[in-house]
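Figure 2 data, in text form.
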Amino acid sequence: MQVTRIFKIIVVGTVLMIGMCATTIAADRTPVLDAVNVSFELLNRDGEVVREADFQGRNVLLAFGFTNCLHVCPLIAANMARALKMAKMDAVGIFISVDTERDSAAIVDDYARGFGDQMIGLGGSYEQVSAAVNNFNATFVVTKTADNYTVQHTPSIFLIGPDGKLIDVFAINTASQIIADAMK
């Protein structure tokens, strides 16, 4: 009986502390968002260099992934495309492949455009993609063995405002309407 009561007190206390921390973090996320450098220098399907400055004046939804992904990446790209359509504004979705060995910029662009007219795909060398991923405080790992080729990456959707500053970061399962509303 005593052990059950102590366990309940610990669980309730932990939940309250987590709730207070989450409220504190949510109340002032500006320092966290400001710490993300939203710059990149990647390649479009024609091999031309594309930079974040090329999208000034527009909202940008940006995510990292790869075209051979069966579950997570299609969900990310579809969610971005839906949010862009719902927002009804001049905005662009940028899907950046972290699989530099298998995904050329043209392959990534075809993949991204398959989800909607406002979507584009960018690629680049390992160094270019790594720099972009690091700037966004994201991660990716490609593991190759004789029997397996695995790509893991941060599955977030980044919202960059027309001023070039990061507005928010969304989980892949965030409702498209919430993302669209954040663009307005």
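Caption note: The mean pLDDT is 87.
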